[in-house]
Amino acid sequence: MGGFSPPRNDSAATVVSARAIADRAEGEAYVASVCFKHGPPRLLGVELEYTVHHVGDPARALAPDHLAAALGPHTPRTLAPDSPALPLPAGSTVTLEPGGQVELSTPPRSSLTELITAVSADRAHLAGLLAESGLRLGDAALDAHRPPTRLLATPRYAAMERRFAPMGTGGITMMCSTAGLQVCVDVGERSEFAARWAAAHALGPVLLALFANSRRRGLASARWRAVMDTEPARTVAGAVSDDPAADWAGRVLDTPLMVMPNRAGDWDAPPGVTFADWIAGRGAAGLLDPPTTADLDYHLTTLFTPVRPRGYLEIRYLDAQPGATWTHPVALLTALLSNPSTVDAVLDVCSPVADAWSTAVTRGLDDPGLARTARAVADLGCAALPGTGLSADAVTDITESVRRRLRAGKEAGRGHLDRGTEPAA
After folding, report:
1. Taken in order 66, 67, 68, 70, is the CA torsion positive or negative?
2. Beta bridge partners of 182
3. Distances from the Cα of 165 to the Cαs of 195, 284, 306, 412, in angstroms?
4. Chain segment 296-353, per-residue pLDDT in tens
5. What single DSSP character describes residue 60?
6. pLDDT below 70 — which residues of the chain?
7. How far is CA 173 from CA 228, 268, 392, in A?
8. What is residue 390's three-state secondary structure?
């Protein structure tokens, strides 16, 4: 997402400034410096992903040429290398996931109202472009109509598919059949960022359950199950402590290389080699040129954790939402992180379920503990919504929507208990 100054990995400026990494300590210091940038929390951004379907026939496969024609001058260069890749009218860029899912990424905005106005306009424009070509945006976070099939023929995605294949179907499903809603917020002041990091994680199981939108085969969020099943070293939640930057830096260096970009031929990485191994020249890494900061920048893009620091915090665990309702989890999350006292309350309320990722995936609000915590979190978030600058009507609409979700989850849970069966797929 543009504007928050994420680590860069594909520009001439990065190549010019890249320097060799002498040892692990230098690598960790670099990661901490680029991933956690401190200051007053004031900017917001979102990334909206959607599966794309033919109108009237959602099971019909997408054709790359058809999708490129629909997107026109906004087509990403991963699909059409000669495309001008123009931003949408309100400034959002269009990118594509490996299976052809479309992603709308906004520049950061200084207020929630400004963000919603800009993104809503660009989303409507994007939907209109697709409709002119007989295509539409999906309403769910998992493609229930087509098997996962890679549409983009890039070296990175080809190497990822080969890497994840022996681990099961999670990787290819995550790559080609899922759609998420990502919220980006500033790290915050140095004195507060550890608590904001912890709160962003602690809210994960609760908000994942509350806004689950990929129910399949008895799972509340089949999308997040696919992420969890991809490769644990790069998908499990990060450590929560008083020093998130040091923890993250250590984790990054101990994560295996996923791909080796810009190599002749394929981009497959040597099996089992971590970035720390590469710095030290251990094992198969001894055959590689020493890594640079540009290599480390790229490695940072290969971790897919629920919360990923990129100079800002990229909160990645939410399922894509239907239609205009993407604003509801974004507003609630923004309100819950809006001030230190609310952050402290979040940490207290969420502590019993802060690590309940698997339960959130499998049972969602059917789980009594998650349902109870979700009600408390909703009370906190909805009470804080007026402070986000939203209109009274918007606050009422979001609050009522959240309450309906809680009631629906409670009623569904009672029904499942009465029947003695798991939820239907």
Report:
1. positive
2. 47
3. 37, 22, 22, 35
4. 999 999 999 999 999 999 999 999 999 999 999 999 999 999 999 999 999 999 999 9
5. S
6. 1-16, 410-425
7. 11, 20, 40
8. coil
